[in-house]
Write the structure tokens for this entry.
Amino acid sequence: MANLEAFSQPFAGLSQAAVEPSRGDVWAANAARAQVQYRILAEAEPNILCRLLSYFAQQSMIPQQVSVQQLQEDLLIEVQQADISWHRAEVIAQKMRSLTSVCSVELERLAELPQSPSLSRGGCTA
């Protein structure tokens, strides 16, 4: 059994680079950034939200807004994501569609974002 004392401070070894919120899109580095909305119809399963949101987490993204409405045995899920290339948004939508409990995924471009350097990222203050 592993020595559990080594894990007494789980976040002590993380650097700021390890928790950087976003990474570049190497396939669409010069593409315009947009704000998009996903409308997902899925079977009401306990883990479906985690599975869908994990696609954003894998890209170090945090959605701007997530809303869920239960419709009998289905869920209507809306996710808004800003500062994403259309290519990356489409890739995430295709991954969502591959889940067997997802009935449909609609992707809509809400706004085109201006090409500008990233703003400094804030953090939580104590």
